[in-house]
UniProtKB/TrEMBL annotation, chains A, B:
Residues 1-25 are annotated as: Disordered. It comes from the Eukaryota. One of its GO terms (cellular component) is lysosomal membrane. GO terms for molecular function: chloride channel activity. SMART domains: CBS. Keywords: CBS domain, Chloride, Ion transport, Membrane, Repeat, Transmembrane, Transmembrane helix, Transport. Its main location: membrane. This is Chloride channel protein. The chain crosses the membrane at residues 119-141, 162-186, 285-304, 316-338, 358-383, 404-425, 479-497, 568-585. Residues 736-794 form the CBS domain. It comes from Daphnia galeata. It is a multi-pass membrane protein. Pfam families: CBS, Voltage_CLC. Belongs to the chloride channel (TC 2.A.49) family.
Length: 808, 808
């Protein structure tokens, strides 16, 4: 795997891994370098008082005595290293000659057709995403029925016959079997399918090329894996992975071909570029949320708030359409499945049940705010614990079998805790309540009663959330709910990050609903059953607060919860709680998704430049020396440049000044354009060589050919050259991007960042006053400079580049 | 008023007006040049076949035989002229020396404080916007009661005494009085307060400096004007203007000073720049919608979908908070006003009444789609008619008194039609229905009955919408609803664009609800009263469809309607209808807001570049010659440049090549930076002159001083200079932006547009290969190139610049 970085400044670069499958072997972790994030929170920012001497090139010669902010170099550690193995996507159009020639063939009619095609593609993305969601849902529902029906039978039988170890072992066996399957699928099948996939999709939309993210195999592993995880009874949800599935469907459908299956429909060729694909993936992610929660508006907002890094009014409507189609399809299929053909009665995978209209009074606002604070604190604690667990995993659980083993251990512990709680907590409730439990288990209760704790454990987490939202005030014993909360909180924290497909939405909502219901029960008791103190309402607020504290999403989560509960009157209350939870949580650490991104060392670029970076100049941070090519270059030179470097883009210059000593050089020639490694590879494969150094007269290779290779370019090693070919020339002029974006070397880091981020660039060439190339800035250059705002202290850090970086 | 355009290429420039107050005097309309938009729809795009000879500089010398898309020059007409009187805002930071010096004084603590301050400001924006909305609402409700109570008394009396002309004259008198007031306020007070203000806010957020848009006076005229308009019984709503009010509140509060009132709190100085102000205004617009409809999520989405041109995840949460605070405040105040202190029972200005849960079946989808098509067609017709009326107004209704007179005529016609309908249509319904009418008028009905037509006219349009949504199926006679729809449709079309503050939301919803109810009544009759054929449901779908067809908003409108009716089950149906209406309407013309923007010639930049513009180069469209300044320039030169040109920005060069003949010059010197007219004006006012041409040694004027003048810079005419001062020098180096964004002259229009639009630039300098200035690109340069997609045909046009352009 290659890197765009022209030179790794810090020299710490270790050999990158050969793929994600064996990425773990690349982990070269030095325990002495490890510094937990909390420790370096308050060190920092020493230069304001001028105490820190500045490197010479950081000073503006025209401003004597100028003091610039120094970005503190962080030691290599878990949250403080940027992986060098991730490449960027090209969101910038390469407007070369062959592109312009193709562009001239377009006419208004073809443009209209292209636009209409986009809507058609988006329609199918919505439909397919919903169908996948339905399949997962129906599988889970049907197989859960079988599993818990079977267990119920044996438990009932063994309570009488005093052989409870048998159903325990059965439960353990079934669950561990599914968990094993889930884990093997991911660990040995497609490691990139682990987790919820939301952080990876977010990174993809930010412009990072996460390998194998959208493969057909990944989609299959994700869908099958999450089904198994849920059936294994682990503390996971199936909603997060739907986002990844939707994104994968979008990336696949929009290309009109499948490289995995090796066929090409020959359609949708115009969408085979990173930018078009990105817009479809944004829609797919929204469709995933829409299908998961039956929340089309929530889907669009989630894509906007959490997923997307580039937004455009024109795609809003398409994304909205995609979400809507997805929600519709799901509704129709599930309605049909539940025997209501032609009705639209099933809103989503996760219908939390309609809430009645419960108004709330002004007096409740302090309660909501307090619950927001609790949720924020609990979420921050969850993230911090999960961070430490993840660090532990990255250090010690490296081999595949260890990962599978860990999953089985977690599964066993989950089942055992559940069984112990069912056995010891005797929380008996009368049968036949309005919201009937699916598998009421009597255990040691009297006839006509059932064990409420068993009901919590022996059903899907979704059903437990629904129960906590809607059960009558007397249904749950505060002690058992409290115990359930504590165990489930820690279990879900341990579970998230395992080598299985799993979402964090439902576990967070469930533990939040548990403590929220406790608050509600308390208020109900204090007010002696006042109408407003409805425990179900507080369970909803608690669930929102907990998830808000963990994931730090506000707007979209409020809409999703409104859409899944069908209740608008609580809207303002939910929003207030969610904003509070986010603000409180942000004081301690970042959201779980961002934390995952940082842990994996993914070079994600935030929305705005780090503050106070106006004094840092482009020439300070740029990579140099720059490897450049001439407009008509000798083939042997091109080959050796590709062999010797790992750079992804090469500035093309007018005059060759490359012969001198590189180290002392300050300028590398007058800029004529930029050519990408992928283009050079295709050119070497297609061999449009010429014998004269003045250039070729043959007609250039059409854009069609370049598009044919997208997105998997020919392996350089497979191409062989004759001596004659090596001695001939390659005319780069028809293929190079003649007007790449540049930045003057005196430009500030802020300005450079703005340009790079707003336009979604991959390479930014730094030029001097004479428009000569002096350096190169890539995603990794910029992502290394980061500001961390934490408890009012700002930390300016420069992250070292490292070779490790396992996907999430 | 000045312009950034360095040179008006087409030479058609007419003297701009001296302000908006007397803008009408500047209209220099040539009837022969007028071409309605429909006529030139299919002419165009002649160059694909190479038939049109290209100007020499449009050809790429390296691509022989290259054919470039030619942008057809349009004749000056109503929708085809770009006004030259609008300036741009500066969304780019000027990172000059004095800025960097100030930046160094900042520390993490001050940054945290600044961030917290933003939240506090946003809180107050939400509160104030809601308070204004409450005031308007309460005024309207109370005075409507008085007005219609009074009329009812006289009508009842005169029906018996056969003197109906008396209440007619009273109604006419009262309504025309209010309408006169509304019109005089706007026409003589603040013309920029006319209309809904949404198009202007949209333009402001796009980066156009619309003068007087956010003044305190404008806010007052807007609020008082819309109250009078509604009281005048005109076919207007008070919701659209709330967006403008919110924006004005945000722009005012965020600056910590009022230039109108002449005081400065000395706080919030760090927010006195265009970029910060823009973010607050985005929040204010959202708060306006939230307050108008009680729809906090709808507010955020409206701001996102329709208002904003720049989006950033970081501001999402602040905008959401602002919306939420606004909805909360409104709810609390209105609850208190209605005697329910401490409850949160009033969701918004426009509570359409809670809809019961009406599910819908798959079979209804074709009906919804058909209604979407009808709405799209009706909306397109509305826009087209309104366009012709607006053109007529701009040609013939120029003087202020004529504008006022037109308002009075429209008001008289409205009242007369209402009276005639009440008199002739005898639609009697029994009194005492569940949703009681506020002013039941018996007219010629029997005792115990009331005239249903009178009930429609003798109440606010909001109440009529509510009635159409919720009345029992038998309440309305199809004939009277149909007549009401036809008259109201044309009346509202005539009314929109009058010189009063008025919104289009409610009139559109009302006429849509009318025809929607007709559809519902038809279905109810056909199905003989099936449960799903609820006329109220179809009235809601019709209302959405009509407004969607006119304004072409989908996502936010769906959310607003869901939030105001409290009904989620119709969500998918609403979305489907709205998307259909938008797609159908877009086949014929653009939305009413965009049409208004085009009519006013506002240089708004769309989200993406015109298609097929890759062959057009920056050097073809750039303005030249460029007026440049030296780094240390003679004061007299600066004065004469400011006097002789109207440019807003001047590139600063290293070497003076300005002495030669301008016309033949191709390069104007090596670029060193960019200085703005506003900066030069302040410098001339502050006079930091030096006697030596090598530069000043004095410490430069601090940024504080520059900020003090923002946003109204010293009038150049008021500054006087001695001979000695004129002979001295001005050192521009500490003030100039040293690294302005540049674009190479060979860059395509697409690339230039991307850079300009994504970064919100005001000036883009075109450079040659040696980094020397060769031209200048501004907003107006780019806004002139436009693609119009209409019925599958794409029209590439180059708009001429004109001097007219009255605000909407």
């Amino acid at each position: 795997m290659d890197t765009e970085t022209q030179t790794l400044i810090n020299g710490q670069h270790s050999k990158p891994n050969q793929g994600l499958n064996n990425a773990e072997s690349g982990i070269n972790f030095d325990a002495t370098q490890f510094q937990p994030r909390v420790r370096d929170r308050h060190i920092s920012y020493g230069s304001i008082n001028g105490a820190v001497p500045l490197p010479e090139n950081n000073r503006d010669p025209e401003m004597p005595g100028q003091q610039t902010v120094v970005f503190r170099r962080l030691p290599q550690g878990m949250l403080t290293t940027l992986s060098s193995q991730f490449e960027s996507l090209d969101y910038e159009l390469c407007e070369n000659k062959i592109f312009k020639e193709e562009e001239l063939k377009k006419n208004p009619c073809s443009l209209t057709k292209q636009n209409a095609t986009r809507w058609v593609v988006v329609f199918f993305i919505g439909v397919c995403t919903a169908l996948i969601a339905c399949t997962i849902d129906i599988c889970v529902v049907e197989m859960t029925k079988i599993k818990y029906g079977f267990l119920k039978k044996y438990i009932e039988k063994c309570v009488k016959e005093n052989c409870l170890y048998i159903p325990y072992l059965q439960w353990l066996g079934i669950s561990c079997g599914f968990a094993f399957l889930a884990s093997v699928l991911v660990t040995y099948g497609e490691p990139v399918a682990a987790g919820s996939g939301i952080p990876l999709v977010k990174c993809y939309l930010n412009g990072i090329n996460v390998h194998r993210l959208h493969r057909l195999k990944t989609l299959f592993v994700k869908a099958a894996g999450v089904t198994c995880s849920v059936l294994g009874g682990l503390a996971v949800g199936k909603e997060g992975p739907m986002v990844h599935s939707g994104a994968a469907v979008a990336a696949g459908l929009s290309q009109g071909k499948s490289t995995s299956l090796g066929f090409d429909f020959g359609i949708l060729k115009e969408f085979r570029c990173d930018q078009e694909k990105r817009d479809f993936v944004t829609g797919g992610a929204a469709a995933g949320v829409a299908a998961a929660f039956g929340a089309p508006i929530g889907g669009v907002l989630f894509s906007l708030e959490e997923g997307s890094s580039f937004w455009n009014q024109n795609i809003t409507w398409r994304i909205f359409f995609c979400s809507m189609v997805s929600a519709f399809t799901l509704n129709v299929v599930l309605s049909t499945y539940h025997g209501q053909l032609g009705m639209l009665a099933y809103d989503g995978l996760l219908n939390f049940g309609k809430f009645p209209d419960i108004p709330f009074a002004l007096l409740e606002l302090p309660i909501f705010i307090s619950m927001g604070i609790i949720g924020g604190l609990a979420g921050a604690l969850f993230n911090q614990l999960n961070y430490h667990i993840s660090v532990f995993r990255r250090r010690f659980i490296l081999s595949r079998w260890a990962k599978v083993l860990e999953v089985i251990i977690v599964c066993s512990v989950t089942v055992s805790i559940g069984f112990v709680m069912i056995y010891f907590v005797n929380d008996c409730k009368p049968l036949g309540a309005k919201d009937a439990v699916e598998f009421p288990i009597q255990m040691f209760c009297e006839d006509g009663q059932f064990n409420a704790v068993a009901a919590m454990w022996l059903q899907t987490p979704e059903a437990s959330v629904r129960a906590l939202f809607h059960d009558q005030p007397g249904t749950h014993n505060p002690l058992s709910v409290g115990m359930f909360f504590i165990t489930y909180f820690f279990l879900s924290c341990w579970t998230y990050g395992l080598s299985i497909s799993s979402g964090i939405f439902i576990p967070a909502l469930l533990s939040g609903a548990a403590w929220g219901r406790l608050v509600g029960l308390g208020l109900y008791r204090i007010t002696q059953g006042a109408a407003w103190a409805d425990p179900g309402k507080y369970a909803l607020i608690g669930a929102a607060s907990q998830l808000g504290g963990i994931a730090r999403v506000t707007l979209s989560l409020a809409v999703i919860l409104i859409e899944t509960t069908g209740n608008l009157s609580l809207g303002l209350g939910l929003m207030l709680t969610l904003l509070t939870a986010k603000l409180v949580g942000d004081c301690f650490n970042s959201g779980i998704y961002d934390m995952n991104v940082q842990l994996a060392g993914l070079p994600m670029l935030p929305w705005s430049s780090p503050p106070m970076c106006h004094g840092t100049q482009a020439q300070t941070i740029m990579s140099k020396p720059v490897v450049v090519l001439k407009e008509v270059e000798r083939v042997s030179t091109v080959i050796s440049v590709l062999e010797d470097t790992r750079h992804q883009g090469f500035p093309v210059i007018f005059e060759d000044r490359f012969s001198g000593s590189q180290a002392k050089q300050t300028s590398f020639g007058a800029l004529r354009g930029l050519i990408l490694r992928s283009q050079l590879k295709i050119l070497l494969k297609e061999k449009p060589f010429c014998s004269s150094p003045t250039g070729s007269t043959r007609s250039p290779i059409p854009l069609e050919t370049f598009r044919m290779y997208y997105p998997r370019y020919p392996a350089f090693e497979d191409i062989h050259f004759t001596e004659e070919e090596r001695a001939s020339y390659l005319d780069l002029r028809p293929y190079l991007n003649p007007t790449p974006y540049t930045v003057p070397k005196h430009a500030s880091l802020h300005r450079t960042f703005q340009l790079f981020r707003a336009l979604g660039l991959r390479h930014l060439i730094v030029t001097d006053d004479n428009n000569e190339v002096v350096g190169m800035i890539t995603r990794k250059t910029l992502a290394r400079y980061r500001a961390r705002i934490c408890c009012g202290a700002i930390d300016f850090v420069e992250l070292p580049l490292g070779g490790h970086g396992v996907p999430l």
